[in-house]
Specification:
single chain, 391 residues, alpha/beta, four-stranded mixed sheet, 16 helices, globular
Length: 391
């Protein structure tokens, strides 16, 4: 695009934003200036969602063009036994309760073995908090995966799980992380953060570690050289102010560690939970979360539209509201399906590629750390450069 055309497009974007009462924010976005917490509240409260989305899309295309990332992955939820009793969760079971399970290392290996014919590059392992599982169990399931499929990348253990693992080891997390890495841990997912606000923590998941503890654990993970994702569970009892605070705290930690590689807004699914009466966020709510995150999290490179939670049509629209990643093919996801998700349990690679193309974007297969495996519309290549996030 010529400089004159680009300048004209940006001027028109500013004019539309100005007409919607978002001109000052648009000026910052076009100048690559960090938005304030007050700007975040304005974006959450603006009735002009289409303009918020257009601003987010501008940032998305400035950073990534039309490229949209996905990977070929599988999920393993190794136990659903949990002692946190979160009011938003339909996945958790108590010991002895109907449906409660713990996978043995051999069963974890069998899950991996079942996908050996598929070009899977990542296994995503998260689960409940079951205090009776010994520290050695976590090392064993990592080793079981690696022994079955040595080349696979293991993205495992939320910050909440890592705190429990260190508790069972009776040693500091900094001390055991090298052992987990040696056993096969390659990176960490972003779940368990929920909403950092103390009020929401007290009302919804008071037995879970606090937001500050989650952030400190992520700091330790990043200092150990591991990358991780980050999340926020939205659409229940939290306020816009609490969402902005959550995003700002993620942004401040990223300024310090540069360890977050992707942010995923997680939509609350109320079915079969204690909060079923609250209802679920709408598609417009979900699109706003994607857009506001892209605009506020200027130092996190990737924003995911997690199709398992959003559904395929909304995920496709989200690719024009700031998202540049749709996660992966996913095999046997349990946590959100127990809470009423009606999306497929898995899709084939070719389906994901077609969905991305149908949304007008260019599909790019990646590995967990965003190294390009296949740009899909071009010969295989080692990397596709992208403008880094603001530091």
């Amino acid at each position: 695009m010529s400089d004159n055309r680009q300048g004209a497009d940006q001027e028109q974007l500013w004019e539309r934003a100005e007409a919607a009462g978002l001109g000052a924010i648009a000026e910052k976005v076009l100048a690559k200036t960090r938005l304030s917490r007050e700007d975040g509240l304005t974006l959450y409260n603006s009735p002009a969602l289409h303009v918020v989305g257009e601003l987010a899309n501008h940032v998305r295309e400035r950073m990534h063009g039309d490229r949209t990332y996905f990977n070929v992955n599988q999920h393993i939820n190794y136990t659903n036994i949990c002692n946190k009793l979160c009011r938003f969760c339909a996945f958790q079971r108590l010991p002895g309760q109907e449906g409660a399970y713990v996978m043995s290392p051999a069963e974890v290996a069998e899950k991996i073995r079942a996908q050996l014919d598929a070009p899977v590059t990542e296994v995503h392992m998260v689960a409940g908090i079951y205090p009776k599982l010994p520290y050695e169990y976590y090392l064993q399931i990592l080793r079981a995966v690696k022994e079955t499929r040595p080349e696979i990348h293991i993205k495992a253990f939320t910050m909440i799980e890592l705190m429990q693992i260190a508790r069972r080891a009776k040693r500091p997390l900094r001390e055991i992380l090298p052992e987990l890495i040696e056993a096969g841990l390659g990176s960490c997912p972003g779940g368990g953060a929920e909403v950092f606000a103390d009020r929401v923590h007290r009302e919804g998941y008071h037995l879970k570690n606090t937001g500050e503890q989650w952030l400190e654990t992520a700091r330790i993970v990043h200092e150990a050289g591991l990358r991780s994702n980050c999340t926020m569970l939205h659409g229940h009892i939290e306020t816009p102010e609490e969402r902005v605070d959550h995003l700002d705290r993620l942004r401040r930690l990223q300024d310090e560690t540069h360890g977050f590689q992707a942010y995923i807004p997680l939509s609350f699914h109320p079915d079969h939970t204690e909060w079923a009466h609250l209802g679920a966020p709408t598609a417009l709510d979900e699109l706003r979360e994607i857009a506001v995150a892209r605009l506020l999290l200027d130092n996190i490179d990737h924003i995911k539209a997690y199709w398992i939670m959003l559904g395929i049509p909304v995920a496709q629209i989200a690719l024009s509201y700031g998202a540049n990643d749709v996660d992966g093919t996913v095999v046997e996801e349990r946590i959100y399906h127990d809470a009423g998700a009606t999306t497929p349990q898995e899709v084939e690679r070719r389906e994901l590629v077609q969905w991305i193309r149908d949304a007008g974007r260019v599909p790019v297969e990646r590995d967990t750390l965003y190294n390009v495996i296949d740009s899909c519309d071009a010969p295989r290549e080692a990397a596709i450069p992208a403008e880094p996030a603001l530091s």
